[in-house]
Design brief:
Layout: H1 2-11, H2 31-45, H3 62-76
Helix pairs in contact: 1-2
Length: 77
């Protein structure tokens, strides 16, 4: 989770990722940030985020992103 938080802080250090739970729905992250985030997560965790995971619920909070990463890693094993 620390690595994910580092990635998020690089994208936008002004957001409180520990409490924010409407990153997408609240338009806190823009489309460029989301594209960067998907690429960074894919590289950092050596996973492929398929289209079925590219839904707002998976990116609305750091916790949701972490749960998605864990689920993808389980599915790839």
């Amino acid at each position: 989770m620390d690595e994910l938080m580092d990635i998020l802080m690089e994208i936008n250090p002004d957001i409180d990722y520990e409490t924010e739970n409407r990153l997408i729905d609240g338009k806190v992250l823009d489309s460029f940030s989301i594209v960067s985030l998907v690429a960074e997560i894919s590289d950092a965790f050596d996973i492929e985020i398929s289209p079925k995971y590219l839904v707002p619920e998976n990116f609305n909070s750091a916790k949701a992103m972490w749960n998605m990463i864990c689920k993808i890693q389980e599915d790839e094993d």
